[in-house]
Amino acid sequence: MExxxxxxxxxxxxxxxxxxxxELACHVTNITHLPLGGRLGVTWGHTTLPGLVGGPQTSNxxxxxxxxxxxxxGAIYSDRLKSGVMSLTRVHPDTFKLRFLRTQxxxxxxxxxxxxxxxxxxxxxxxxxxxxxxxxxxxxxxTKRPTLNVVAxxxxxxxxxxxxxxxxxAVATENLGEAGYSVLHGGAxxxxxxxxxxxxxxxxxxxxxxxxxxxxxxxxxxxxxxxxWTKQQPGQAWTRATSAESNKVKIDFQENGPSFSVxxxxxxxxxxxxxxxxxxxxxxxxxxxxxTSAHTDDLAYEVRWFFTRxxxxxxxxxxxSVDRFGVVRKDNRNSSSDISIExxxxxxxxxxxxxxQDSDSGEYHCVATPWYxxxxxGSWTQAxxxxxxxxxxxxxxxxxDSLKLPLLYGVAASIGVGLFSLVFGLVCAHCCCRNTMHxxxxxxxxxxxxxx
Length: 452
Known about the structure:
Layout: E1 4-13, E2 22-32, E3 39-48, E4 59-65, E5 71-73, H1 78-83, E6 86-92, E7 95-100, E8 109-120, E9 126-133, E10 137-139, E11 147-156, E12 165-174, E13 180-186, E14 197-203, E15 206-211, E16 220-230, E17 239-245, E18 249-251, E19 259-265, E20 270-271, E21 277-286, H2 290-294, E22 299-308, E23 317-322, E24 328-330, E25 338-345, E26 348-354, E27 362-373, E28 380-382, E29 386-387, E30 391-395, H3 399-432, H4 445-451
Parallel strand pairs: 20-30
Antiparallel strand pairs: 1-2, 2-7, 3-4, 3-8, 4-5, 6-7, 8-9, 8-10, 11-12, 12-15, 13-16, 14-15, 16-17, 16-18, 19-21, 21-26, 22-23, 22-27, 23-24, 25-26, 27-28, 27-29, 27-30
Protein name: Ig-like domain-containing protein
Organism: Eleginops maclovinus (Patagonian blennie)
Domain Ig-like: 258-387
């Protein structure tokens, strides 16, 4: 007697969109008269839905498992079965399965499984002794167009030049299934600053964009364009599914730059001639420039010193200067004293007047021009000129020091002249006014006359 059985087909996994898995089970029930050693085989068939792929309805053999379990793939499905993206298996002696890892739109349609009973004849040959076919099972879903929704948001706001800006783009999908994403960021960034850009993947569907050390040229709008890519089957090339553009995020800040101030001071405002006078010009910086406050190499000053002879006078003369590269220049002065400029630190400059003279008395002030490396432009920027208050330097006139030598010389000269006069008088008196003995006149008049 021939074997008898019933075949039922059911969907264990029914896809709701493209790229989802599909799993069909073919159950053989009510098996009777299957001889000892008899086996069951299965053949799977597929019929396309009318007009689904733009052509006539067609039927194709997916593949079969014979009584010994050998796989015989159909011509159209051979590559997919060999690659493993589809499989035909026997999970029980009376149950067979058809599985798609990623179902394509062309896989929609009617499926049937035809089960055959194989028996061994008395001559030892395996023969197909009976077969039964299941009722068709339709596999289909609504083919909605895949969509992307990309939302951009600011994570770190750059409110000043030199700060770091960071934003993220998150992707939400519909009717897409498993996909890969590529991202393109748009904005006003200078192509020469690509080394300052960082693009990372923060999650399966989230990307982050970071711009380090924003500059004025970076101000503008930023957004991302994300493209979804799918593979119909593993091992195949990526296929573009759809793309979407996010909302725009703005970088906008005002560059005010750092603020500077200058002050002048001196330990003493009066010195004696030939002493050294020292005046200190001190600068301070404040404001919103991160580079200026953090690195002294990004800040320099040009300092000039001026002299006014009269207190409150308007006529000033430049006496010395140092540029932002540290080069000192001395100006011609109407004084025999010498001048030097000393840089004590980044913000302090010292004017030294060596061997002061009376002509050095007067008002002094300094004028400073700051230069800083702007975090917003990346270039050296000249700030406004700063003028300090004035201090008056007095070179004292030392009366005793100025008179002691003339007095000493006068006294010495007077004493010398006095001594010379005394000695000279004594010498003259000794030579011209010496006392002589009186000789009485001789009574011999004739002799006296001769003598006279």
